[in-house]
Every structure is written in structure tokens, then in C-alpha cells.
Amino acid sequence: MTRAFKQDAFESAAWKVFSSIGLDAATVRDIVALSNVSPGSFYNYYKTKETIFDIILVKVAQRVRDAARLARSEENNLDTMLQKSQYAAFRELLSIHGAPHFLELNQHHIRAKLFNMSETREMLDDLKQNLLRVVPMKNTSPERMDFIAAAVLTTALEGLLYIARNPLVDIDQTSRLTAGMTAAGIRAAAAACG
After folding, report:
1. What domains does the chain contain, in order, with CATH numbers?
2. Does 39 have pLDDT greater than 80?
């Protein structure tokens, strides 16, 4: 078995474990047993279950970032831009088998790590550029723009968690609701900054 094959087996097994029982309840033994790869290889590559969790979280964040970025890149209307990017993020996550359970079971870990990830910073920087492109906020300080972008992201995260808990929810309606809420807040912030 090649290193890449073993890592794929470990990451696939870890995804299944983290989406069924969560990081807190998971053990390295659970991941290794499901992977059919030796425990020694796991410890050589990852050392801890938290390390492999972080790797998986980064891969999921990259997929969501790319889907949202592509969806909003052509839009010049704030509401449409937010709705399309959030819808794309929701769809991307729901296309990953087990993602709703992964989000629900591990949300406290995701929240703790989210704003420390380079993928999140890239997502926020791209979002800020797009917001400045479609909303007149020239007098808004960089710190305020950081806060506005973070508020958009956390509202979308709440939408994802809502969908994870309610799998029959319409993602189009949810993306319209979260986009409408954030668009109203952005307009209010822009007006307050002149």
C-alpha cells in the first residue's frame, strides 16, 4: 500500500467516524479499525485524532470556499450575490455524504477552529472584496469590514447547522433567509459609515 492510499483510507474512515459519533467520542482505534491500515501508519502520519480531524475540516472548508466564491464572482447585486453564494455552500456541503451529521456532532470544534484557518481567512478576504464591489462602503474601516464579513460567514454557518438539524428544509428558502438577514445588516452598516 502506498502512503497516499493509506492516507485516503484513514481520512475516509475518520470522516465516517466523525460523522457518526463525533470527534469527542471517536478514538484512534475506531478510525484504524475502519481503515484496515495498521495503527503504526496512523501514528506516523497523524499522531492524533485531532490532527486528522483538522485535515478533513480544511478539505471541507476548501470545497465550500470554492463553491461560494464561484457563485458570487459574477453578481453585482448584494442580495443575489449572498443568496447564490450561500446556496452554493449549502449544496456543496449537502453533496458530501454525512456532512450534516459531521456539522451537527462537531459544531463546537468547528466554531473553535473556523476563524483560525487560513481557508477561512481567504474566504473572508474574497467576501470583503466582493462586498466592497457591490455596496458603497468606502468609509468603512478595515476592522469593521472584517466584522461584517465574519457576520456573513457566521450567519451562513447557522444556516448550515439549521439544515443539518432539519434535513427536509428547503435550502433555497434557507439561503434566501440568511442572505436577506445579512444583506439588511450590511446595508445598515454601510449607512452608518456614511
Report:
1. 1-47 (1.10.10.60), 54-193 (1.10.357)
2. yes
